[in-house]
Design a protein that fits this description.
The complex is a heterodimer. Chain A is mostly helical. Chain A is built from 15 helices and no strands.
């Protein structure tokens, strides 16, 4: 690669970065356009409402008339609860697999990893039936409870980390006669802050972006998640692109903020996982 | 006693939300069921119907085509991006972050903004092409273009993820080996093809495995962009399960489609590990 001068590499990177970022810029710019400006041909590169009194009209309309504020809060609640659930259950299970010896351990661990490979579409039909029989339709339970119970990737990550915890930390607790759960809560869990943060962020993002389960389990308008609401808005008001794109901006903004401020953890997660969701 | 108590949530979750559904879906694949009546056993009828149906065979070929385009796209572009940002230069951390940005964005938002960009009458993409005198096709409305277009957008969204995976592998290659090659008079192309690529092969294998599994996850993008159309052209196995189960309420048939998908995923994963033995050169 020495043949390319550094300047040439820089130029290629700039072009590629532009192609990557352009759709975001276009979404943002159109969200500050009036309905007539959005449809102008050739497309006007400058949003006509920017800097005017009516600048935030699209956002006001999508937030108030179309309840996107409410949907965002719903998503925040569901994703936050799922993240907490995954951290709790996966750290506990990871601790058990890393530290304790018992019959059937390998069997359960293998089952956990094997089921990770199964696409959700394979299990969704019986899952829907179970959710229906539990009377969980039109509640957030089917979107949150499974996260409090089981997680393959998170358990694997915590197990790997806990297997390498220095024995000096553990020995002191053993001498104090700590029971397993106390060991987990006082020694292991506090040591794994970065793992917990990483898992929380992955779960939060996956849950925020999920579509299949919300569209199956939620039918009450006020209960929709923001990702799901975008698709509903798209099919109902297919011509209101300026509003739809404002909704799009609102739906991606929280995750982009998380990404910008916690980049290290987000990128760490893809290095360590290799498998998402 | 203690380990079982502590593992109780995991075991309950594993059984209720994974093992029972996997088994249940296997049973349902041999039944006719609309969710309201009891399922009635029909033997292999669902599988026979699927394999006799040209529309289903098209779904299979769409799925394969999407996967091929996706895997090739993210591997080539991901590696290219990784090589480009794997250098000590000002601004590389900005570029890495920029390329990763679409990865954290929902497929739904990505699908919506790209539908707008590619819109035949009001889209900026066609306006740009027109300025160069190119008559653009109806990207998402033409059955010949819709599937490659959707695959391209998924590649656009996910390449940054594969960049990070490749980057980790590139950074594991010791500088000393590359320097030795330069001292021996290798030019940069030789260095890339004779040193970097072979030494990267464990990473490449890992990335390939991830990409293949990942290539089936296209439900959200297809739902947001085409809903399987036009004329079944972007209907893939994951979307077909949804369509049959929750639009047509044919739970038995949809389960059979789900199991055909699962068989494909399992076969590919198994083949990967068989090929790995021959392909991957020893790790240094």
């Amino acid at each position: 690669m020495k043949r390319f001068g550094p300047l040439c590499v820089f130029a290629i990177l700039c072009v590629l970065a532009f192609l990557t970022i352009f759709p975001f810029i276009w979404m943002l710019s159109n969200s500050f356009s009036s309905e007539s400006n959005v449809f102008r041909m050739p497309p006007s590169l400058w949003p006509d409402l920017l800097g005017k009194a009516a600048m935030w009209d699209n956002y006001k309309s999508i937030l108030r008339e179309f309840h996107f504020g409410r949907y965002s809060l719903n998503s925040l609640f569901i994703s936050g609860a799922s993240g907490i659930g995954q951290v709790l259950t996966c750290s506990l299970a990871g601790f058990v697999f890393a530290v304790m010896k018992f019959r059937g351990k390998n069997l359960i661990f293998t089952a956990l990893l094997l089921t990770l490979m199964i696409p959700p579409q394979v299990t969704i039909i019986p899952e829907f039936f179970i959710v229906m029989k539990l009377n969980w339709l039109d509640s957030y339970l089917p979107l949150i409870v499974p996260s409090f119970l089981v997680g393959s990737f998170g358990t694997f990550m915590f197990k790997e980390f806990y297997e390498n915890i220095p024995s000096s930390l553990v020995d002191a607790a053993v001498i104090d006669g700590a029971k397993p759960f106390a060991m987990y809560a006082r020694v292991y869990l506090p040591e794994s802050g970065p793992q917990a943060t990483t898992l929380f962020i992955i779960t939060f993002m996956n849950s925020w972006n999920d579509l299949l389960r919300p569209i199956l389990y939620i039918s009450k308008d006020k209960m929709q998640t923001v990702t799901m609401a975008l698709t509903q808005f798209q099919s109902q008001y297919s011509a209101k692109w300026n509003l739809l794109l404002a909704g799009g901006v609102l739906s991606v903004l929280p995750l982009l903020l998380i990404f910008i401020f916690l980049q290290r953890f987000v990128i760490q997660s893809s290095m360590s996982s290799g498998i998402k969701g | 006693m203690a380990p079982w108590v502590l593992l109780l949530p995991t075991i309950v979750g594993l059984v209720v939300f994974r093992i029972i559904p996997v088994g249940g879906s296997f049973y349902l694949a041999f039944t006719d069921w609309n969710l309201l009546r009891d399922p009635s056993f029909v033997g292999l009828e669902n599988f026979r119907e699927a394999l006799d149906n040209p529309a289903f065979l098209q779904v299979v070929s769409n799925t394969v085509m999407f996967s091929l385009l996706y895997v090739a796209g993210v591997m080539v572009i991901g590696l290219m991006l990784a090589v480009l940002v794997n250098r000590k230069m000002r601004g590389t951390s900005f570029f890495r972050a920029a390329f990763y940005m679409p990865v954290v964005t929902s497929a739904v938002a990505v699908g919506i903004v790209w539908s707008w960009i590619l819109s035949p009458n009001h889209g900026v993409a066609n306006a740009v092409l027109q300025a160069f005198g190119i008559t653009a096709p109806y990207w998402l409305g033409d059955p010949a273009f819709a599937l490659p277009t959707v695959a391209f957008i998924q590649v656009w969204k996910m390449s940054g993820y594969y960049m990070i995976l490749f980057l980790a592998g590139l950074q594991d290659i010791p500088e000393s080996v590359k320097e030795a090659a330069l001292v021996d008079g290798a030019n940069s192309r030789q260095q890339f093809f004779r040193i970097t690529l072979p030494m990267l092969s464990p990473t490449t294998f890992f990335v390939l495995t991830v990409a293949i599994i990942d290539s089936f996850k296209n439900f959200e993008l297809i739902y947001a962009m085409t809903r399987g159309g036009p004329q079944n052209a972007t209907n893939t196995l994951v979307y077909d399960v949804y369509l049959n189960a929750f639009v047509h309420y044919r739970m038995g048939y949809a389960s059979a489609v789900g199991y055909i998908l699962l068989a494909g995923v399992a076969l590919l994963t198994y083949m990967n590990f068989r090929i790995k033995k021959r392909w991957v050169t020893p790790n240094f």
